[in-house]
Amino acid sequence: MPGKTKVLKKPVRTIGEQSYLLEVVKGLGTTLKHFFQGTGQMVSGNVPDAVKHPLAEGIATISYPEEKRPYAERWRGVHRLTHRDDGSPRCVACLCCSTACPAQCIYIKPGEYPEGDKRRGYERYPVEFVIDELRCIFCGFCVEACPCDAIRMDTGMHMTAFDEKSAFVYDKDKLMSMVSQHGTQKSENPRHEPGEAGHPGIDRLRGGH
Amino acid sequence: MLFWISTIVKVLVAVGFLAQVAAILLWVERKQSAMMQNRIGPNRATIKIGNFEIRAAGLVHSIADGIKMVWKADWEPSGGDHLLYRLAPIIAIVPALCLCAVIPFAPTLYVDHARDLYDPAWATDVATAARSIPMQIANLDVGVLFVFAVAGAGVIGAALAGWSSDNKFSLMGGLRAASQMVSYEVAMGISLVGSMMIFQTVRLDEMVTWQTQHCWGIFVQPVAFVLFVTAAIAETKRVPFDTPEGESELVAGYFTEYAGLKMAMFASGEFVEVCVSSALITTIFLGGWQFPFVQLTGLEFHYLGLNVSWHWAHFIVVLVGFITFSLKCVFLIFMQLQVRWTLPRFRYDQIMRLGWQMLLPAALLNVLVTGTVLLFLNGPTH
Fold first, then answer.
1. Which of A121, B151, B154, B323 sits a CA distance of 20 to 30 A from A185?
2. Within an 8 Å CB–CB cutoff, is residue B46 touching chain A?
3. What residue spans define the domains of chain A?
4. Using CB atoms and an 8 Å cut-off, which of residues 14-43 of chain B contact chain A?
5. Which of A31, A33, A66 to probe the B interface (max B CBs under 10 A)?
6. Residues B329-346: pLDDT tens digits?
7. If one looks up domain A80-177 in CATH, what number appears?
8. Contact B131/B109 with Cβ under 8 angstroms?
9. What are B34-62's pLDDT values in tens digits?
10. In this complex, do A24 and B339 lie within 8 Å of one another by their Cβ atoms?
């Protein structure tokens, strides 16, 4: 089947372009324009905020550790464990995240709540929750796997460099100390404690299975 | 006595300045390229004194670089020629420093008449002329020819460095440097023949004098100006003529095997060459130390029906001359750096073609046209 053929015009160099001299002057004009624009901005202190206006004319540098480009809400950074209202982790140690993790970087040691705790029987809690951030591939599967919205990657932080490998292994306290981009340690999703309205009330011991 | 003291002072000032120029130009180059490319440029190096921080807009980076260069391991290739290897950086930088000897950076200062109005009779008066300070380290009769001879010696440093490093990349870079500099030396020399014909001299101070009395060299020799500037940039081996270094092909070309202060000498040699070539272009084409419409007596504007004569004391004229010369040099250095950050590197065959097939014929044609016009204007001189 004969397709439509678009005949491209072969670019022709004019004598002015071929002689190069005029083009050099033009190029110098462009760079000089930018030079004076940039210098003017630096001297007068009128440097545009590259974070807020990335397409503004002139200096476009973001001085990284001091200024940061905001990340998208869904950008996957270093993990955090979300808190309940009483400050304990939302995590119920179901091991979904460590099962989903393709890099096998999550280790959870589940524990039973002590006798008399109202959560006992309904859910467990992580005695240890360790993520090896060096192994992590930041795929976000753990976040998707979590049924309790207990693990999130919305801290907006890069993995920073440390001097020794052990520093990259984040334990439960470290993960619980992280805050989201908006500064909260909790999650927007509601959480129903056992006994509250909205809690299904079914558990391993009392649910009949 | 006056001669010796003044000469020593002039040498110290000139060499002292040129030795520091690399540190300053390094900063200028980084900052200028940053501004051109919408960046901020280096600004992190800091000198901390208590709570007080000095960043000096990135100038501290030059100091940090210097410290780094000094403390680098002074590594040498085991297979090369050690004597030549150590000699090469010196040969690369010394000719560039020597060149500034013949450049006049201000009018001659007559010490006895510093506060008087200039009188042409001073130059011929033996007693007065004896107590004068020419603002030029060596007032050579050969002038421009000295420049060519010494500038041509610069290539030896690059070639030796390439040869003695025992590295194929270095050797290739050295060869390229040698052939490129020899090629552009030819065009450079011939491009100035027209200027010499018009100025009727090869002495650089007399060239400036001619330009103050008539008009700047760029107006009588515009083609030679373009040719000379092109050849001068090629001689400094900087972008767009930096194939001897050619990072993408030759690692770092002829100084691949150099580290620490030896490498710094090559780098600062390049900056000194930029400075000196700017000074040369200023002297030959931009009127040297002359501020427009300023003569040795002061401001003389006798055009457009105006007759302004504003006489200055002799030492003020000298001072204005020195400042003007410096400003012109700074402008040309700025433009050279601007060119360096504007144009991409030429291919090696393009450089050779430009040198031999464009610049050389153009320079020869310029000589022919200049000679014809001079003959037409002046008639046969004998």
1. A121
2. no
3. 16-70, 80-177
4. 32, 34-40
5. A31
6. 999 999 999 999 998 888
7. 3.30.70.3270
8. no
9. 989 988 888 888 888 888 888 778 888 88
10. yes
